[in-house]
Amino acid sequence: MAPLDRRSFLSLSAGGVACAARGASAAQSDAAAQSDAAAESTSAAESVVPFQTQPSDRIWDLHCHFSGVPGDSVEQRGGQLLEYADRMHVQRLIFFMGWPWSHTPEPAEFRRQNDQVLRALDRWPERMLGFAYLNAAYPEESLAEIERCIHDGPMVGVKLWVGRRCSTEDIDPLIRRCGQLDALVFQHTYLKVAGNLPGESTPQDLAQLAARHPQVPLICGHTGADWTRGIRAVRPFPNISVGISGSDPAAGFVDMAVRELGPERVIYGSDCGGRSFASQLAKVYGAELDDSQRVAILGGNLRRMLRPIMDRKGMSQS
């Protein structure tokens, strides 16, 4: 390359300085713009009120288990779950089933699991309520467990899982006895794409049961998971309420349930510890509800349904 004379060198140098100056100015402008954008974003974020539940909502949780948390005892697991519940202002929790789970427990097994729940009720009588876990494949033993846990004990309802489909008339003696005791009946329901487990009920099965027992309050657990179909399946039966627990916190679930069934037939539950309180509460707080509807779903409906048996047992709802 030919050597530069003094004039050429100064010309090139001046151009380089000018380019550098323009680059520095552009960089400073970009940095300033980014700083302004960050400040605006921070300001906008600070203006959003964080999601918070309110003690005045009086949240009662329909659907709780001792799963999903560490601990070798009911006291350890229950204490951990109450710590989480307190963060979300959940006042009372209904527990059913102990651990480890069994889809089709024999009588000795469901009695053992009910004993675990009874221990928790004895430890936290002001915070916890219990439903007796039954297997309708053993009707006589299940009737005896209703007497032990509900008639003679502190429990206020029953949980039926997948022992036998609830559309079968074999289950009727259990439902009649619950009706006599004002005990709630929580029936797990699912509509699975790959097919349900043997003995696993659907909302359509529960509709058949409701038609045979129109005076007994029934709860459609999970609303069948496929909630659009589940809501429509139980809509004609006013003695069926839907539990919204356990599925993904999809927008529109609670809105549709209120629109199709009325707010008085929709009940909040979490399915903890398999699901978080926050994700399931979001279904309610994210729905288009007025204050009275929200309060009813979060606990008012459940308290109303439990009032007859709780009054009979001398249990306070405060």
Can you give a write-up of this model?
By secondary structure, the protein is α/β, with parallel strands linked by helices. 41% of the residues are buried. It starts with 5 loop residues before the first helix and ends in a 5-residue tail after the last helix. It is built from 10 helices and 8 strands. Helix 2 links the parallel strand 1 and strand 2. The N terminus is likely disordered. An 8-stranded parallel β-sheet has the order 1-2-3-4-5-6-7-8, with helices on both faces. Helix content is 49%, strand content 14%. It has a single domain, classed as TIM Barrel. The radius of gyration is 29 Å and the shape is globular.
**Largest sheet features:** 8 strands, parallel
**If you compute it from the alpha carbons, what radius of gyration comes out, rounded to the nearest whole angstrom?**
29 Å
Number of strands: 8
CATH class: Alpha Beta
Percentage of residues in strands: 5-15%
CATH topology: TIM Barrel
Distance between the first and last residues' Cα = 94 Å
Structural class: alpha/beta
